[in-house]
Write a structure and sequence with these properties.
By secondary structure, the protein is mainly α.
Length: 296
């Protein structure tokens, strides 16, 4: 699954799980990607990922309150909240926005296994177990980065990211926490190769922002169709308007749209069609009229 200019990523690291209810004994089919893999890989449905539960990381909002609010304002979410696993976010405290986006660029449009190998080579160029710093990235020769397996476009993107980090466009994690969602989107999408969807995943799973609704996300749109019994995916504007009822916890509602998509399975979700455009609606009407004329 692709999301515009955004990226597919996979992480072997374990992640913290933040829960609003007691563990419900997940089966392999109930366990999808870790939150960090959701952010980096862009696909939410690889079954069998490890579940790690700790109590050392706290969300910047009350998850129990969010779940209660959503269950009360939207009856369709109540069974999902009761049955599916609760919202989880990443807690890799060492990873900066620069590093998260650097890894995102490395994993763009290739398989997770190949990307992990390439990104490992890029990290090795720093001489430490961390990725190259912005200063190091700008000094690295294009030839060395291409030899590591990066495409020319990715090399340019990484150097642009490094440059914008040093210029202060890409904030530190502390600075990012003080910026609004809109300010972060505006800053980060200015980086070559980074789109709004990647930034939204960063807001959700790295910063734990409570009110983010990825209206262009395929999983959210199909999960909405499953939850509300629709044969077509909603238009982004339609989903945005519908999501007003979920404020100020649209992030958690989006999480349950992903869970609905995951639980439904490919047999059902593959049948969900793209939203109807005006042209398609007109064409369908013309076909009906033509059929009636033939029958009469």
């Amino acid at each position: 699954m692709t999301c515009g200019r955004d990226v597919r990523m996979r992480s072997a690291r374990k992640s913290t799980r933040v829960r609003c209810s007691r563990s419900q004994g997940f089966t392999l089919l109930q366990i999808a990607l870790s939150p960090r893999t959701l952010l980096l890989y862009g696909s939410r449905f690889r079954n069998g990922a490890n579940v790690t539960q700790t109590s050392g990381h706290c969300l910047p909002f009350d998850l129990t309150t969010a779940c209660q609010h959503l269950a009360e304002c939207d009856a369709a979410l109540k069974p999902l909240i009761e049955e599916a696993r609760p919202f989880e976010m990443d807690s890799d405290l060492l990873q900066s926005p620069y590093e998260a986006l650097l890894e995102a660029i490395a994993y763009q449009s290739i398989s997770g296994k190949a990307a992990a190998t390439i990104y490992g080579r890029v990290k090795a160029l720093s001489g430490t177990d961390r990725p190259p710093t912005p200063e190091q990235m700008l000094k690295l020769k294009t030839r060395a980065l291409r030899k590591a397996g990066l495409s020319g476009a990715k090399v340019l993107a990484m150097k642009d990211l490094a440059r914008k980090t040093l210029d202060g466009v890409v904030p530190t994690l502390e600075e990012a926490r003080a910026l609004s969602d809109e300010e972060l989107v505006e800053r980060l999408v200015s980086v070559r190769g980074i789109g709004a969807w990647t930034v939204e995943m960063f807001l959700i799973f790295r910063l734990g922002r409570p009110d983010v609704l990825p209206i262009h996300d395929l999983g959210v749109k199909k999960g909405w169709s499953v939850t509300y019994g629709k044969k077509h995916m909603p238009k982004p504007k339609e989903l945005l308007a519908f999501g007003e009822r979920w404020r100020p916890y649209r992030t958690v509602a989006s999480w349950y749209m992903w869970r609905a998509f995951e639980r439904a399975g490919a047999k059902i979700t593959n049948k969900i069609k793209p939203h109807k455009t005006r042209q398609k609606i007109k064409a369908a009407k013309h076909r009906k009229v033509a059929t009636r004329r033939k029958d009469s």
